[in-house]
Model the fold of this input.
Amino acid sequence: MHPSTIREAVLRRPFQPFTLRMNDGREFFVPHPEYVAVSKRVVMVIDSKTQAGVHLEAVLIASMHFLQSTPTSSSASRKSGARTTRNPARAES
Done:
């Protein structure tokens, strides 16, 4: 994968977490832009649990997958047809 593709994902606003999948099947999750650095040939990813850094050769990165954003509870209830009441006093009358 070309490093500029990864750099664009890191600079996207709002940032959307993504996973880098290597040719050998390993996956590296990037939860925040501060957990990745991109150079001309190498991508460095920090493991959020161990804080260990992993150097990845950009040419060995097979794909990038973005996390699906989860809808908020209010938008999910609107999609399901449920009504939300803003003023409970009005709902009683």
